[in-house]
């Protein structure tokens, strides 16, 4: 795993004007669309409850459902492989590709493949991966990792994408000023690859134990083309994607697209059941599924097991004031945002800097409020902060500050007196504009924004005044 330095990377992100411009579209896009989609449903809370119950049911008997899934896949003529680590997953995929003498690979979006750095491993073994998801294709050209689990190229502006295409495709003069022009060019470049690739690798949104089906949702149709045209299809997924029944899968689908993109359902929702039958004209002759653990079994047995209910919709990061300020690359992890701030330390707990991520939260609670399966993200982040404290990862000055604060609040009168005094002093030095460009002990705030000065009273003083007015 790369070293995580969230503090330094977030400072760089805040100064990146192009990134800030790209991030500004989140609130007007994903957030607004989700709100409309939720408001259009009579009882969205009921759907959330059903989806959570479906995920809870799957995690409660994960081992049973995984074995049932494996049996069903084998009965359909497919093969299931088990990988403990990302490195094992990558090696299994390479071995299968070499066994079939594959040299070119169609790649669909798969976060598990990102965990395994699969593209780099394939390239190192003289196997060329071609990304087929438009966002993934853009960042492949840019040689960058995804910055969002649903929209990988969220951090790119239209002008940056135009420049990438103009440099990579060498098609002479053409119009790339419109989104339609960019999409049409990508479609034209990719079409030939769909017809000539030796194999395909896709992810999976769910694995249905009842039927042995892998469920894939996309908006571009690249998943269906990738899974049906080449002779060899490999699905890379993690063990926590299991779901008990098709009915439970439908319960998850009812909240997935609404939470992710604000759609009633994605344009393509596909269920794959192994290689093609003798009566079928389309589909792969060889079908493999590689399932990754990567500490998920340990998470399942811990106080953080609810994190495994995540359905990778991205709603938590779309609504997170930290993520929408710094973007995904600041987390320097496969999984950014609130869900990544929980998963990353659990998967890579040996890295001290991974425990910076649970502190990258305002605890506003919006992530839990919008999570379609009701994962208590603030609670899990708080537990990780305690874990980091117990590991000795908290700076000594922070410990002293918290210890001093805990002493002061035990004496309400002294607390009220000291805070009132502090407010008065700040008011004396606030200047004509009523804000501070620099402030001792608050450089983390004032480095990138001014700090508003207090208005002359503490909350307790205002509360007491209001209560007095009401009683008169």
Structural class comes to alpha/beta
Please list the strands of the largest sheet in the order they lie side by side.
1-10-7-4-2-3
- Dominant shape: globular
Regions with pLDDT < 50 over 5+ consecutive residues?
Answer: none
Number of strands: 12
Tally of individual domains:
3
**What CATH architecture label of the largest domain applies?**
3-Layer(aba) Sandwich
Distance between the termini: 64 Å
Helix content: 40-55%
Strand content: 5-15%
The radius of gyration is 25 Å
- DSSP summary: helix tally: 23
Q: Average pLDDT across residues? A: 92
> What would CATH call the homologous superfamily of the largest domain?
NagB/RpiA/CoA transferase-like
General description of the model:
The protein is an alpha/beta fold and 472 residues long. The chain folds into three domains: 1-40 and 303-394, Fumarate Reductase Iron-sulfur Protein, Chain B, domain 2 (Orthogonal Bundle); 43-294, Rossmann fold (3-Layer(aba) Sandwich), CATH 3.40.50.10420; 412-471, no CATH class. It has 23 helices and twelve strands. The chain has a six-stranded parallel beta sheet, sandwiched between helices. Strands 8-5-6-9 form a four-stranded mixed beta sheet. A two-stranded antiparallel ribbon has the order 11-12. The model has no long low-confidence stretch (mean pLDDT 92).
In a nutshell, what does this entry contain?
With 472 residues, this protein is α/β, with parallel strands linked by helices.
């Amino acid at each position: 795993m790369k070293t995580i330095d969230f503090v330094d990377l977030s400072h760089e992100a805040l100064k990146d004007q192009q990134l800030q411009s790209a991030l500004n579209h989140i609130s007007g896009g994903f957030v607004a669309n989700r709100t409309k989609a939720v408001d259009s449903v009579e009882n969205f809370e009921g759907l959330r409850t059903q989806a959570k119950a479906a995920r809870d049911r799957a995690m409660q008997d994960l081992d049973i459902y995984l074995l049932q899934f494996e049996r069903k896949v084998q009965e359909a003529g497919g093969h299931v492989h088990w990988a403990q680590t990302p490195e094992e997953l990558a090696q299994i995929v390479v071995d299968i590709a070499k066994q079939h003498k594959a040299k070119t690979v169609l790649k669909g979006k798969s976060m598990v493949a990102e965990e395994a750095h699969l593209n780099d491993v394939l390239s190192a073994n003289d196997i060329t991966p071609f990304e087929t998801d438009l966002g993934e294709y853009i960042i492949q050209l840019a040689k960058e990792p995804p910055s969002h689990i649903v929209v990988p190229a969220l951090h790119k502006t239209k002008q940056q994408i135009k420049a990438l295409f103009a440099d990579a495709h060498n098609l002479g003069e053409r119009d790339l000023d419109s989104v339609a022009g960019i999409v049409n060019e990508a479609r034209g470049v990719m079409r030939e690859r769909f017809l000539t690739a030796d194999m395909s690798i896709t992810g999976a949104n769910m694995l249905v134990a009842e039927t042995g089906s892998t469920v894939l949702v996309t908006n571009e149709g690249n998943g269906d083309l990738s899974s049906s045209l080449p002779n060899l299809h490999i699905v890379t997924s993690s063990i926590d994607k299991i779901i008990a029944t098709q009915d439970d899968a439908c319960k998850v689908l009812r909240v997935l697209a609404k939470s992710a993109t604000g759609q009633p359902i994605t344009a393509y929702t596909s269920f794959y059941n192994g290689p093609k039958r003798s009566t079928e004209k389309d589909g792969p002759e060889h079908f493999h599924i590689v399932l990754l653990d990567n500490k998920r079994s340990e998470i399942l047995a811990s106080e953080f097991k609810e994190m495994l209910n995540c359905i990778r919709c991205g709603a938590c990061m779309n609504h997170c004031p930290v993520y929408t300020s710094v973007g995904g690359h600041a987390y320097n992890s496969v999984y950014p945002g609130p869900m990544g701030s929980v998963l990353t330390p659990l998967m890579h707990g040996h890295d001290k800097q991974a425990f910076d991520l649970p502190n990258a939260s305002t605890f506003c609670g919006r992530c839990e409020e919008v999570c379609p399966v009701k994962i208590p993200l603030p609670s899990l982040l708080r537990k990780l902060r305690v874990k980091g404290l117990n590991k000795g990862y908290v700076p000594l000055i922070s410990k002293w500050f918290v210890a001093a604060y805990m002493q002061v609040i035990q004496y309400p009168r002294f607390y009220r007196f000291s805070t009132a005094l502090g407010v008065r002093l700040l008011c004396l030095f606030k200047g004509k504009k009523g804000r501070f460009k620099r402030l001792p002990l608050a450089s983390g705030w004032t480095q990138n924004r001014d700090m508003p000065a207090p208005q002359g009273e503490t909350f307790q003083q205002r509360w007491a005044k209001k209560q007095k007015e009401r009683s008169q």
